[in-house]
Inverse folding.
């Protein structure tokens, strides 16, 4: 793909720039056959996110957490590139590519309660661009600074268009106290072209604390004034779905309560990655699917056991 | 004062210990002549804090903020020991001893709307043990980890008993988003003896990020389970009064909205500092009044102008 085709240039200029979104948010408007109500889908389109309370049962969440507990004790996993620790200390921050290296979480990624909505909103087959388990441990969980995921996926991974969404499946209660995700509703309709070149192999650092590819203070101040802030605090088992370009971030967590979640990025098959728009080398496979792109197969949603 | 008289030993043992409070919280129970209602005072006694909404007017807050703006531009002040920057970068985090080096803030410290309550609760004359202006700037404000102020004042400053309280005067709206103070209601009735010796001149580091004199994770987990967490989010101009031994902390602030406040520690004259119970040398005067202890003089609360 030539440079001319870059609709969302970033990290290329000396001054930040705000660019209008060139893509739909809601790709399918056939509301009569949708996995969410028309009101919910229009809310998603307007705000760039929707919170679905307690989609997964307490028993399911318990099972997911038990699996997480196993992963924390797996020395091979801990030594792998896919395991990221907190900026200071050795507390586990994230494990990537869980749709690939873990059977249970692979099934969750394909669960029709989430995947059907992704297929509807993006109007077609989807695959997992990135997945991770976020631990956000108690006492020492650090903040994630404001960012649009798409800015990174476009610049560092080569995702061409805004035709992807994230599902965050809460494994613990997210409260105002333990660093629940903050979002700027409606911010997904504008794109902040960031300042600063991407260093080589920047992902090693940015997964712990990102500085390049984050918006400047002036743009963020303007965004906060225009869009405001919303909390996404919710009970364990709830699902937060949000557009790839929604501005979001979270504060630290000094409470004793971990803020853990499963995170899956659904990308339209038609929107699979090309060469990174930064011109740099692509990030490793565990951060961005490139070699292993297969449409998600979910069981037919209507089929019942028995 | 001999070591035997240390009712609240800390940083002396290898294992943390929880000690019952040996002192009253509310020293005066003559409710008929009190600056707060009996219900409010009993709430303070039970919870260890009380939030008084919008005590200072918008105009007063504006004046306080303008003064703060001046201080941020004062090169002499910025170069002084009393000015503390954020752990990374040069953003101003706190300025100490403002009751001493700033006329306006000195008047605020003595304002009867706050000082009368301090005198009532502590039952007698009071002086300012410590004062500061906290900036908690937008985007980059870091967390304050859980701690009891008294633990530090006792160990590092030699404050003998729990007969002090803090007043935090909010200069900006404190919300669930910008790192408002979290407290554990009722935790002031117990004292966590912390682990770890105090390094010499430790204050230089601890004012940016404290690690010694903070409770261990086990004790905090137990405290959170027993006492729970409360938010103290409130509008600018509100005053949070809290006991010297209340467990409190705050998360980071990545929003564009600063979380600034004036902070005054009222200590009973009868409770003035002795030698530090750590056995180390005392912290400098700008952190703990030792040489300059004078009872606060407030104008008589009933006297009206004209």
């Amino acid at each position: 793909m030539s440079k001319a085709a870059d609709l969302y240039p970033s990290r290329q200029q000396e001054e930040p720039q705000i660019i209008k979104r060139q893509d739909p948010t809601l790709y399918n408007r056939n509301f009569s056959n949708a996995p969410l109500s028309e009101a919910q889908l229009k809310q998603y389109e307007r705000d760039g996110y929707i919170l679905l309370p307690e989609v997964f049962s307490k028993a399911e969440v318990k099972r997911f957490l038990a699996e997480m507990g196993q992963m924390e004790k797996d020395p091979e996993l801990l030594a792998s590139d896919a395991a990221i620790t907190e900026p200071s200390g050795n507390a586990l921050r994230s494990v990537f590519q869980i749709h690939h290296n873990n059977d249970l979480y692979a099934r969750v990624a394909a669960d029709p309660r989430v995947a059907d909505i992704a297929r509807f909103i993006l109007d077609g087959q989807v695959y997992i661009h990135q997945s991770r388990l976020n631990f956000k441990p108690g006492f020492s969980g650090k903040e994630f600074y404001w960012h649009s995921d798409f800015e990174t996926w476009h610049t560092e991974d080569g995702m061409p268009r805004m035709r992807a969404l994230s599902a965050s499946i809460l494994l613990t209660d997210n409260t105002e106290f333990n660093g629940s995700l903050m979002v700027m509703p409606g911010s997904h309709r504008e794109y902040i072209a960031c300042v600063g070149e991407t260093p080589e192999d920047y992902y090693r650092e940015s997964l712990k604390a990102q500085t390049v590819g984050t918006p400047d203070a002036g743009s963020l101040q303007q965004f906060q004034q225009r869009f405001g802030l919303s909390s996404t605090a919710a009970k364990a088992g709830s699902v937060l779905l949000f557009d790839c370009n929604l501005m979001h971030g979270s504060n630290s967590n000094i409470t004793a309560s971990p803020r853990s979640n499963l995170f899956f990025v659904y990308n339209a098959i038609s929107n699979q990655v090309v060469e990174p728009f930064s011109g740099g080398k692509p990030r490793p496979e565990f951060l961005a699917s490139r070699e292993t792109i297969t449409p998600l197969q979910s069981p037919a949603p209507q089929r019942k056991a028995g």
User: Anything to note?
Assistant: Residues 30 and 158 of chain A are 30 Å apart (CA to CA).
